[in-house]
Design a protein that fits this description.
heterodimer; A: about 475 residues; alpha/beta; Amidase signature (AS) enzymes; 2 domains; eleven-stranded mixed sheet; 11 strands; B: about 500 residues; alpha+beta; Arc Repressor Mutant, subunit A; nine-stranded mixed sheet; three-stranded antiparallel sheet; 16 strands; about 40% helix; elongated
């Protein structure tokens, strides 16, 4: 039995039936990390002590003849923007190189309460700002499918770890596509839930109104399992919704026959790679064969999504990142002579180029005299984008689109061209602006064996619906 | 009663000042506005803190419901209109005691607007408009002194970070430093009545900034304003305004222009100093706080809160004047604090003559408290004791002199009136007529001149005799009885 390639259900069953132990499973993953991760770079920090204690706890449950919880003994990795009490959390930034959080992120706490074994913290673009993971202050992540290529970003480590079998499932965050795009690039399943579905408590904020925590897995079922654990109202997050959490694992097995699937021309236009296009068209045909009705829909404001996104996201980021001032924790510049110099030098030394760029963009967008023209206007466009989806979902149950316009690009290809990098998010930012869920699942490969991702959007809180479509496609493909 | 300061400013006939006040009031909730940390004042630095109020990465604010209720109650007491939906916003600026780099406040959609309070000025009444009342969190404190390394380091205490505040912004309706003083006095009184804050200026639970400008009398357009900050008593606000108005008039009179700036008041020198100009002013980059939902205080909730609104001082004074036949001056003194007013009313209702209770409180009690440096809450004599003593005097059982002595003993012994009255063996006034008759006869015999005056029709001389008899009987006699006795003897 190759312990590293198991799904959640099979790994849990193996531990429950004592074919292996949770400790042995964790050790197998640490061994795999030791042998494979140096060339991938998915992990920033390992938390063996915490992991092995949790694994032993799960083994003790089994020894007492008790039933394992949903994630009992499952080795998982956590994106380094989610805080973990006592385990260094850097957000991929030098400014937090020495930061040990005094508390746990709700999603992580829920994973552990469900028996998950947290192997360590996963590499990402600094403060989740990036689409290639090249903005990590520590090291880039290499795509396990082709080490010369990027894994996508910002949750590059989270996608790569699942693709490289160095974790069974992982948590990432998605502010403009940071789960779905790397899932697409690495050939795994990644879900951005509805805004408010998963508590953001303990997520180091990039853009508060766009940030979401979501799972990566090898299969739709694995993703559904993790979502069931982390979803639901959290009194510590006022924006988390009081909406019941269905049994996703059961829901996804329901038939898709007769479901209406929308296809939007705005997602299939100029700039879309030909191979990606044909893979997505083939996937749509497949869904039709599975009994879905394919309906053309229009999302006319899609063309404004990128500028809208980069105004809202950077504006919020400029405020969210103000707390990194060197006063209470994190990097503080030495040898300064005044307060303002301490601020300037600490932030100048602690933040990378992309983070500084976004802080400046956002500060500008919120400045007196510009607020109405930029931030307020962007919020209005956001409402229009949301309305586009609401109208479309009046006609269809889900909308399919490519996750990204291209497959994974080479490391270094776009580092000097931030605008080209921003356009990698063109099909994903809309779900964040509208607050709807979106999942990316593998839908074939290019001639160069690079994974292609199919994206499925749903109504607010309709994760069960899009995962059902994804599951049907995955099983039928 | 409102006090007035004879300021030269008020008398300036050429210019008139325009003043608006911004008052920050700390709410008396047990926990902070966005986390469950204690709001207790005086704990060791950085002990009432958690990831939320320390501005750690990742935690989120959760609004304290009690703080909303307190803020709404204060807004209702200030005659404001409550906005059913209000929005929290981030006010962004860097300061070491502001942990998140932004303060969560309210900006274009505050909790309440369009209020007013009435002030008494120059014998009349004036309405001062309240533009808005909004909720926000307090910042921490920078500690520049008091530590061995204070010369090179500044300490930060974040115990206060996240303590709930309301900011009350007045309209520029205030026309003099005296009006400002009176506005603040009435505002504080109202807030204290609602009990949502202790308004303790020393502990920083009430803070005030003043916007002030001057303009030639008759001109409609406002002059350029300065904001005066860092003033920690009402008296200093008045002084700072007097200084600042005179300074601005001087600037204009000498051909200069007032610049828009923030100025700090130095109470030792009685002067204001420029802190930063408009060009250096912060751009706070307000935007709606994405971590909080819009605050909705719907009609039902408002009605619940309104039920807890107590009778407010001005209404109470009018009612007390009617109920107890006391003067406006009495009413002001007796409503200085809600506690005093409650106590007085309790006593007044129990006593036979409320007016006498009012007189005793003002004539005998407050003075003794002041001499001892005590607050009314610390008085050894309860209002029940005052009522009982008032009844004893009313019934003629004790004299005014005896009451004064007994009050002195109460303060000496730190005991309530009934206790001391008991301890002193319930000194019964003498009703032994034969002994009194003897004294009366002696007094009459010793003062033939006064007897003659009385018999010539100057009946008021009886007072003299009563006094003499009281003195001779060492205050033990019942004045009414003596009066009757003497009248009989002198008439006869």
């Amino acid at each position: 039995m190759d312990l590293n390639s198991l799904s959640i259900a099979s790994a849990r069953a193996a531990v429950q039936e004592r074919k292996t132990s949770a400790v042995a499973l964790a050790e197998a993953f640490y061994a795999k990390i030791a042998s494979d991760d140096p060339k991938i770079g998915a992990y920033l920090t390992l938390s063996q002590e915490r992991a092995l204690a949790k694994a032993a706890e799960m083994d003790a449950l089994v020894a007492r003849g008790e039933k394992l919880p949903a994630l009992g003994g499952i080795p998982v990795g956590i994106k380094d923007v989610l805080v973990t009490q006592g385990v260094k959390t850097t957000a991929g930034s030098k400014i937090l190189s020495n930061y040990i959080p005094p508390y746990d992120c709700t999603a992580v706490a829920r994973m552990e309460a469900a028996g998950a074994v947290v192997l360590g913290k996963l590499n990402c673009d600094e403060f989740a700002m990036g689409s290639s993971n090249e903005n990590s202050a520590y090291k880039p992540v290499h795509n396990p499918r082709d080490l010369s290529r990027v894994p996508g970003g910002s949750s590059g480590g989270s996608a790569a770890a699942v693709a490289a079998n160095t974790a069974i499932a992982t948590l990432g965050t998605d502010t403009g596509g940071s789960i779905r795009q790397p899932a697409s690039f690495c050939g795994v399943v990644g879900l951005k839930p509805t805004y408010g579905r998963v508590s953001r408590y303990g997520l180091i904020a990039f853009a508060s109104s766009l940030d979401n925590i979501g799972p990566f897995g090898k299969t739709v079922q694995d993703v559904a399992t993790v979502l069931g654990v982390i979803a639901g109202r959290d009194p510590m997050d006022s924006t988390s919704a009081e909406v019941p959490v269905p049994d996703y694992v059961a829901e996804i097995e329901k038939p898709v026959k007769g479901m209406k699937i929308g296809v939007a021309k705005e997602y299939l236009g100029e700039g879309l790679d030909a191979e990606v296009r044909s893979a997505v068209m083939a996937a749509i045909e497949k869904l039709a064969k599975l009994g879905c009705e394919i309906v053309e829909v229009s999302l006319p404001h899609t063309k404004y999504a990128i500028p809208t996104y980069y105004i809202v996201a950077t504006a919020e980021a400029s405020s969210n990142l103000a707390r990194f001032d060197g006063v209470r924790y994190g990097h503080r510049a030495q040898g300064v002579r005044s307060l303002s110099e301490m601020y300037r030098r600490s932030r100048e030394q602690g933040f990378g180029a992309e983070v500084k760029r976004r802080i400046m963009l956002g500060t500008y967008a919120l400045s007196a005299g510009y607020y109405d023209a930029y931030y307020l206007k962007a919020q209005k466009v956001r409402t229009l984008l949301t309305r586009d989806f609401e109208e479309a979902f009046g006609k269809v149950d889900a909308i399919v689109a490519p996750t990204c316009p291209t497959p994974a690009f080479k490391l270094g290809d776009k580092v000097d061209d931030p605008l080209a990098m921003y356009l990698a998010d063109i099909y994903t930012v809309t779900a964040n602006l509208a607050g709807i869920p979106g999942v990316s699942i593998p839908c074939g490969e290019t001639k160069e064996k690079l994974p292609i991702g199919l994206q499925i959007f749903g109504k607010h809180f309709a994760e069960a619906t899009i995962l059902r479509v994804a599951n049907a496609y995955e099983k039928g493909a | 009663m409102p006090t007035t300061l004879d300021s030269p400013v008020a008398a300036n006939t050429k210019y008139e000042p325009v003043i608006g006040l911004e008052v920050h009031v700390q709410l008396l909730t047990a926990t902070k506005i966005f986390c469950s940390c204690s709001t207790r004042f005086g704990n060791p630095p950085n002990t009432n803190v958690c990831p939320v109020c320390l501005g750690h990465p990742g935690p989120l604010p959760v609004l304290n419901k009690k703080a909303v209720e307190f803020a709404t109650l204060a807004a209702m007491a200030l005659n404001c209109r409550i906005n059913e939906t209000s929005i929290f916003a981030r006010k962004n600026y860097f300061y070491p005691d502001l942990p998140k780099g932004y303060q969560i406040s309210q900006y274009d959609k505050p909790l309440a607007e369009h209020g007013f309070i009435e002030i008494k000025i120059n014998g009349g009444t004036k309405k001062i408009g309240i533009t808005r009342l909004h909720m926000e969190e307090d910042a921490g404190k920078s500690l520049h002194e008091g530590f061995p390394d204070s010369s090179e380091k500044t300490g930060i205490d974040l115990n206060r970070s996240g303590v709930p505040l309301i900011e009350i912004v007045s309209e520029p309706d205030i026309a003099s430093p005296d009006e400002a003083y009176e506005y603040l006095t009435r505002l504080k009184e109202i807030i204290l009545y609602t009990a949502v804050s202790d308004c303790n200026m020393e502990e920083g639970s009430l803070r005030c900034d003043a916007n002030v400008s001057v303009r030639p009398r008759g001109q409609e357009k406002f002059g350029t304003k300065a904001e005066v900050k860092n003033v920690n008593s009402f008296r200093f606000i008045r002084e700072a305004l007097v200084y600042e108005i005179a300074r601005q008039i001087d600037v204009i009179e000498s051909g200069g222009k007032v610049v828009q700036e923030t100025r700090l008041y130095n109470s030792n020198e009685g002067k204001t100093y420029s802190m930063r100009s408009k060009e250096q002013a912060h751009d706070y980059r307000y935007f709606p706080e994405p971590d909080l939902l819009p605050l909705v205080v719907d009609a039902n909730w408002q009605a619940e809160i309104r039920k807890t609104l107590p009778e407010l001082p001005e209404a109470r004074r009018r009612r007390m004047m009617a109920d107890y036949g006391i003067t406006e001056g009495d009413a002001y003194t007796l409503t200085l604090t809600k506690f005093l007013a409650d106590q007085f009313e309790e006593a007044a209702k129990a006593a036979k003559n409320p007016k006498r209770v009012a007189n005793l409180v003002q004539g005998e009690l407050l003075g003794r408290l002041k001499a001892k440096g005590l607050e009314i809450e610390q008085s050894p004599i309860s209002m029940k004791g005052v009522a009982e003593s008032a009844d004893l005097v009313e019934a003629g059982t004790i004299s005014g002199k005896m009451l004064k002595d007994l009050y002195d003993l109460c303060f000496e012994r730190g005991k309530d009136f009934p206790v001391v009255y008991e301890e002193e063996g319930r000194p019964k006034q003498s009703t032994d007529t034969s002994a009194l008759e003897k004294i009366a006869d002696e007094i009459i015999a010793a003062n033939p001149k006064q007897v003659e005056q009385y018999r010539a029709g100057k009946k008021t001389v009886i007072g003299f005799f009563v006094g003499q008899v009281m003195k001779a009987s060492k205050g033990q006699a019942n004045p009414q009885l003596i009066n009757e006795l003497l009248t009989k003897k002198l008439e006869g």
